[in-house]
Every structure is written in structure tokens, then in C-alpha cells.
């Protein structure tokens, strides 16, 4: 086992392709060391408030949040431990160079291989030392039974307490994180424009794209924008792209893009998003290919009204379940409640879906600095689905959409 002190120097762009922009005009998607240390202090303050001495998590999003280290999760354990003395990052030897290149803000506790002749968790025990035997330690909720067994066998503490505190702290974004969300929103709008342009080109040349072709195209546009305009790219999955469906296929939420080729008269949905610096944004619009029918206009207009009210009710102090109830009531009051399939929305951050949940049963009060989706939808079997989504930043006085593509039906009609 090797333990290395954390590197508190400013991150240097690494991993960007040859020819990637650099210099004063290039957007930097990695949080500087000072911000990461501020995030650690936020969690430390919450530990004290909750009566905990430390917290440990193997959730890749928690690891990235506290240390700035992004990785591809696999069978080899990677975990972060945070206490009053600092952060410790457990990782295999083959990830060491990646953590160093990303200037991970933690001591590195490195083990050789998995499963190995010695438990990887003993590397963490060596790093934090025997003094932790008297600590009460919060345990992140994502850890598997197998890893939990290895952790508690190797690291002996006074008590392990399951906790959701990391997710709750992550819900309110640091201003530096919000800059990443805003850039992701800008690129999401670029992707929406690119999808519409491909449809218009298909109309012009007599060959409309398939759902899969549309999805591939917008994903390439999103990633190319990052690699072309940013000083570095923090690669997460998914980096850019989304769900594209048309006609009756769009009546199935979270349906995967197929070989179905768009046809005149179709309702089609571009459900897109991307991650900049690991911070996600989603933006979804529903379009009509040609002159809308009365039914298409009724469905689209109803969802648009629900989404508009949903944006108005998002403000500090309003509970998530209350915002959801008021938003979806617009669809129910229009006599279309039978076509509801899901909640108003969810939190967005290092995860595309994360707490809080704008849904029945979540009484979390909204707070300034939260980013949530506002995405009411209705789904008519055999016909189509209609959903409009913006990633919303909760402010001191209300909420603002980060994505800005037009939402009304007249702006969402593709003329034949």
C-alpha cells in the first residue's frame, strides 16, 4: 500500500485531444483545488451537525464531488473517506496516474490489484490509522454488501451509521458548479438546434432521419463542441446525447432510439443533455412534423401550461411534493390525467437523476442553489408522448431555466 499526500496545486488541463483549445479563451471544466477544498468543508460542517466524525462512500459521484477524481467504475474498489484531518482516496495502482493527473484533492491510499492477496480495504485502514477506532462514521448508501463486509472487517470504528448527507449537501451547488451547469445548458441548446437542422435537411433531400440517426448526430455535436471549445473534457457516461423517439414510440418514456424513420405528421421528441465538468443538464422538447392536428395542439399546449406553472412554483421553501402536485394538476384539470406516467422532475448534478425528487412522498424544501428538472409529460398509447423539460436553477426569489430553446408549439413545428 502506498499513501501519497494530496496535491493542492491548481488543476492543469489533461486528457484533452491534440489540438484542443487552450489559453484565455478556452472554457475550463475542472474545478480548482480551492473549490474542492470548500466542498470538503461543507461536508465536514454537516458531519459535525449530524454527530458524525467521518464519512465514507464508494459512489463514483461522491468520489468526484469530494476529490475531483473521475473514473470508470468497475470491480476494483474506489472510495473516499473524509474526516477532520482531510480526505483519503482509496484506489487501485492502475488508477493512481489518473488521480494524479486530475490533481485529486486527497491522500491516495493505493492497493495493488483486486481481489489480491490482501484486502484492498486494508489500504484504507493503513491510511486512516488506528485512531479511527473511536469514531462514529457515516456510511454512504450506495455500497454493496460485499464491499461493506470488506470495509467493516478492515477498518474498525466505534460505530457505522448509514447516512444520506453527501447527497443532501451535493443538492445545493457551489457557484463554480453552477458555471459548469450553465455551460452544459448552452451545449444542450446547441444539440437541440442540431437535431432540428438534421430533420430539416432530411426534408430537403427527401430522406428523413431515423431515431437512431438523430440520436447519433446530436451526441456527436455535443461532444465535438466540448472537445472543440474547452481546455479539457471530463469524460463521464453519458457525456452528451439522449433519447430520441417519434410517433407511437414516443408514448413510452425512456424508450431507446430505434430504426424508425420520421414521417410527415409525426410527433417527435428530442430528450437531450450533456455533462460539463461532470455536471449534467437536460433539455427536452416535443416537435410536430407538419401542421399540428387538433389533438396534437391540445396535448402539447397542456404540457406547455403545466411546465410553465411548474417553473413558477419552484422557489425556496416550497416542498418537492407540493411543487409536483401543483404542476401535474394542470394536466389532470385538463382531463388528461390518465396519460400521466411520471413525476414533475428530479435533482440534477453529478448524476443526471439525483435527489431531491419532485414527486409525491418527498417533503424536501427547495433551496436556492438547487438544480432540478421541470419535465411534466403525458403519453397517449398508440399515438405519441409530449414532454417539455428544462433544468431549473432555484434562486432566492424563484427559479430560472438554464436551457432556453423555445417551448411553445408554434416554435416547435417543423414545416413540411
UniProtKB/TrEMBL annotation:
Domain spans labelled Creatinase N-terminal: 41-170
Pfam families (UniProt xref): Creatinase_N, Peptidase_M24
Source species, domain of life: Bacteria
Region called Disordered, residue ranges: 1-27
Keywords tagged on the record: Aminopeptidase, Hydrolase, Protease
Upper lineage: Bacteria, Bacillati, Actinomycetota, Actinomycetes, Propionibacteriales
This protein's name: Xaa-Pro aminopeptidase
Protease is among the record's keywords: yes
GO molecular function per UniProt: aminopeptidase activity
SUPFAM superfamilies: Creatinase/aminopeptidase, Creatinase/prolidase N-terminal domain
Biased composition (Low complexity): 9-26
Ranges where the Peptidase M24 domain occurs: 180-396
